[in-house]
Amino acid sequence: MRCVAFVLLLLLAAPADGAAQSGPQAALDRGDWVVARNLGRTGSDAASQTLAAEAVLSPLVLGLDREVRALRAGEDMRAPVGIALEATEREVRRDAARQAAGYARAAIDADPDYAPAHRALAAALGIEGRNTHPLRAALSRLPGRSREAIDRAIELDPVSPAGRALLGAWHLEIVRRAGEGTFGADLETGLEQFRAAAAAETGPPIPYQFALHLLALDPAVYGDEAEAMLGRAVEAETNGAFEAAIKAQAQTLFDLALTSRAAAAEEARDRLSR
Q: Which of 85, 204, 219, 264 registers the highest number of CB atoms within 10 A of its CB?
């Protein structure tokens, strides 16, 4: 069973104050992922370490393979990427996710009550799980560890739509991949949590990701709702490079869904497999 987490929503964490706001946060907003990671990881506070994790996770979520390889190598992405070519894309993504998890754990060590760090950890574990053999992922307790991080984030910040969306995605993805009841996953709980999160969010990430999950589940049953969510994502105001990229991806999927929901469902499943 591949572990799941709602990897987009960690970027909805409240911006850090002080140096982190003017340093790694500004680089993150510009889409300078390597710069943001390098600046964030030098800080000893939870906010800076969480921003370092987000800087690694952002290109993973967006499917920017070259940038992910640069981050995995610890190189500036403007320079030639020196990763050994024999490393598979799944290995590259898995290693980058583990790097992000390390920054998230450092943030939690600095402040165990910092909810964005727990959301980042859940996201990193989710990406690691999807790029790990299902049996190894299960033996490593990646689904359970991801759920624990989500539950802790919600406990610390119960009003955040990001936490509810993470929980909704955890349920829906496990139901889709392994069947209802696996690891306690429940379809109705997932839909309920995601709908509540989408209702409370004005930006594009939550509606877009909810649409991905709806299409991946069953375009015949959830196609209308998925298209409505994609429409919201396309019309939403954006904040920073990450949200702008998400909005562009939502537009592409929306156009495809209007032409063929079956093709949009296949595309959604592919995007959720990374």
A: 204
